[in-house]
Amino acid sequence: MTHGAIDAVWRIESARLIAGIARIVRDVGVAEELAHDALVAALEQWPLSGVPANPGAWLMATAKHRAIDLLRRNARLERKHEELGRAIETQVAPDLDAALDDDIGDDLLRLVFVACHPVLSKDARVALTLRLLGGLTTAEIARAFLVPEPTIAQRIVRAKRTLAEARVPFEVPRAGELAARLSSVLEVIYLVFNEGYSATAGADWMRPALCEDALRLGRIVAELVPNEPEVHGLVALMEIQASRARARVDASGEPVLLLEQNRARWDHLLIRRGVAALARAEKLGGGLGPYALQAAIATCHARALRAGETDWARIAALYDALAQLTPSPIVELNRGVAFAMAFGPAAGLEIVDALTSEPAVQNYHLLPSVRGDLLAKLGRRDEARAEFERAAALTHNARERKLLLERARVAAPGAV
Amino acid sequence: MRFMMIVKANPDSEAGVLPSGELIDAMGKFNEEMVKAGVMLDGEGLQPSSKGARVRFSGKKVTVIDGPFTESKELIAGYWIVQVKSKEEAIEWASRCPPPHGDAESEIEIRQVFETADFAEVASPEALAREEELREQLRGKSHG
Questions:
Q1: Which of A217, A283, A399, B21, by CA, is between 20 and 30 Å from A345?
Q2: Which own/partner pairs from A368-376 qualify as long-range (CB within 8 Å, at least 24 positions apart)?
Q3: How close does chain B come to A269, measured CA to CA in Å?
Q4: Is any Cβ of chain A less than 8 angstroms from the Cβ of B141?
Q5: Domain count, chain B
Q6: Is A220 close to B36, i.e. CB distance below 8 A?
Q7: What is the domain extent for residue B43?
Q8: B123 vs chain A: nearest CA distance in angstroms?
Q9: Residues B41 and B60 in one domain
Q10: pLDDT on residue A198
Q11: What is the share, in percent, of chain B residues with pLDDT greater than 90?
Q12: CATH, domain range A1-102
């Protein structure tokens, strides 16, 4: 029995374990500690006694005993302080057993909602979700987000304290709150995915492990709330974006734009999964939400065997829908690109030009990058060069900057 | 990282004996567990080798050999593709599988799938450039 094997059991069982115990102790911080104690016990005992036939049940039983001990200790203290009757202790244990026999999926869902609770900052939600649901260690989270380990450790400790102090109940939100709370969950998962998909700083273009963590979380949540179309929309979006991972950089690590990617290198298993997830979202009805719309757009690209076969008119229509649902300068920018592809660069430039006075995108490198591209297509080379240079100055990604400066050089009047 | 978990064939599976209803149920539950955990990407059962064939290369010479093939332990009866964090995790999942051939002996082989990063040092920029050139030609043909 190696530590690697125990780590593997932990990876599979930890979220369910923490969720099951959190229902008893009503505090995810305490639940995680108890689950961790059970892991330590396993690390001590399994190498000697061998792995039990059902390691998950062993961990749960061990953590549960500790949880009950803790509750009894607290109850005794309370009784001493308040001189309550004997009734408490005799009532506690049977209820706990019954509680543990309930569907573990419910507990897991409660844990998802608590880890992504709006009382926490976005950073805290991300760290706590990866820790409690993804089974990542503090060190792994720190490495993935390029921050020092103590920063993440502190963030997690604070998050747990915040949840305890705010007395956040361990429950699935009521129907009225559900939509908003679910969208916080999806946002956290997509943040993790994007952190992995395009690093915001440093020389690394991708950190694929985070994408896999986000996909795994998304797939888990999709099975926990199978009737929520947007969960499937998000999963579809991530599957299809991930399908392009190996075509997004060339052998020397340079980024390759979507339309220039070798489509044979796309991962067709992930595309198939993405298309299936989108179909699940569509089948549930009620119109496509923002994630499903983005997934539908991504699917248009995935379906085209060659870039030239892309159904740009459909993509433009999907962007129209997205712009109505979640208007933002970023969506407008993409809508501009789609219109340029569907109806010519002038049609796209009209949309993109309207954005140049938009304060939110003044420092966003893709705006001048897209404008530069459209201007170049219209033969306005001087303006195009200036835009590419501006974009290069704005990006924080070293490889992208190189790519933009090269485009500026090519666009310059007289260049070949 | 991804692993293929390969169920080896046995004389029964090669004879086309269908698994018991009990085993089908147990497999369904196992699959469901892997789907709920977000690790199962794909999985299929395979028909006996009598319905398959082998295409054998000897240099440039190609020979087709129809099934069935005799060495059933070396044949494949089904597979899953799982996306997990480590080989140990793949082993842990495989260990949770109901015995694939019921009471008879059975084996699941675990193999890691190549990822792009594994090829990074192998594929030279020249090789990729050649690939690009080839694509250009194909494009030219289909348009011309």
A1: A399
A2: A368/A394, A369/A404, A370/A333, A370/A336, A370/A337, A372/A407, A372/A408, A372/A411, A373/A407, A374/A336, A374/A340, A374/A345, A374/A348, A374/A349, A375/A349, A376/A407, A376/A411
A3: 8
A4: no
A5: 2
A6: yes
A7: 2-113
A8: 7
A9: yes
A10: 66
A11: 68
A12: 1.10.1740
